[in-house]
Design goal:
binds phosphoenolpyruvate, 8 strands, binds magnesium ion, phosphoenolpyruvate--protein phosphotransferase, globular
Amino acid sequence: MDELFATTRLEKAVTLDGMSISLLLNAGLSVETDVSTNDAVDGIGLFRTEIPFMMRDRFPSEQEQVICYRRVMAGYVGKPVCMRTLDVGGDKQLPYFPIVEENPFLGWRGIRLTLDHPEIFLVQLKAMLRASQGLDNLSIMLPMVTNLDEVRVARRMLDRAWREVSAETAEQQGEIRYPSLGVMIEVPSLLYLLPELAPLVDFWSVGTNDLTQYLLAVDRNNGRVASVYDAFHPAVLRALQQIIDAADRYGKPVSICGELAGDPIGVLVLLAMGYRRFSMNNSNIMRIKYIVRQSRFDELQKLLHEVLNQQQVGAIKELFSRYLEERG
Ligand code: PEP
Ligand code: MG
């Protein structure tokens, strides 16, 4: 099977009836972003910056961050690289910045923490901007956004970082492009704020791991309730349809960067819903590309409409699984 996937390595991810898909990489270690991967994907859809932070014994300096981010962006010249700002808290701890809480997944996580520590946030934004100089392939994404004010404040911080970095560097090395700014849709409150969120940012990316966790009130890492954690739950699927419909309505580019994008059945359902950009771990890229190339968009769309018309949202997984099996 690996050989079969390998034959599609450099092919485009296009369905049999010509629907073109962007396949992007989820990364966080520079080893995953080396040249053996970059020619098989359309860019990086999620660079988890907390991973390099977690592998150290102190906060990396601005210059150390510049080196790390530059290496990633330079490996993807001409392709988009979406860097997520620090998403620590929850299950991701920094050894040198312990957070002790009763409910870590509902606590001081992601943007909540970085907005409380503007010095950490500002250094990271500046490092990303400096690293992007001359490459122009950076976009920045905010994790765990719950309120619109978080986005407004983060935007002001990015404005400030960009002004300061531009003032320091413009004369010697040319301009630094202002990057596009997006948010992760992973806290359910945003589902009810999409019309107001749309004008504040340039793109959305759906974090199905956390969206599932928070919609279903089930810890994504707790084996005891693993059977309740289900990204194919009708409520999650309806939320995903709502997001893509709103993205179309407000003209917002949207991608999926949770595990569902790298799931063979998940990607077909998402494709049928209208999603076109999928970001996933390196290990899933070839398989998903192969599956996309064996599928027909018109058939997938028809299948989805049939189940939705019959109000059978609970049966979606089974029906798409059968479709997948029939295509080998
Ligand atoms: C997600 O929540 O789906 C996501 C991609 O972010 P992480 O898994 O890093 O929380
Ligand atoms: Mg998440």
